[in-house]
Amino acid sequence: MYLNVLLGMIGPWQIVIIVAVVLLFFGGKKIPELMKGLGQGVKEFKKATKEFDDEVGKANPQKELESKSE
In the chain, where are the structural domains located? Predict the structure, then answer.
């Protein structure tokens, strides 16, 4: 709930200020590298959660059958 309230208060000017501060802090050349690293991290996280779900499904096949029938 707190996050929802916080995000509700961020307007377009606040986003512009945040972007400007990030550009000043990291510089224009560093931003693509940071975004690439963030994307790779998200990709690895999704891969790990998929592998975990697959392992849980193998350990509990009854639950997997129930979810497919719905």
Answer: 2-69
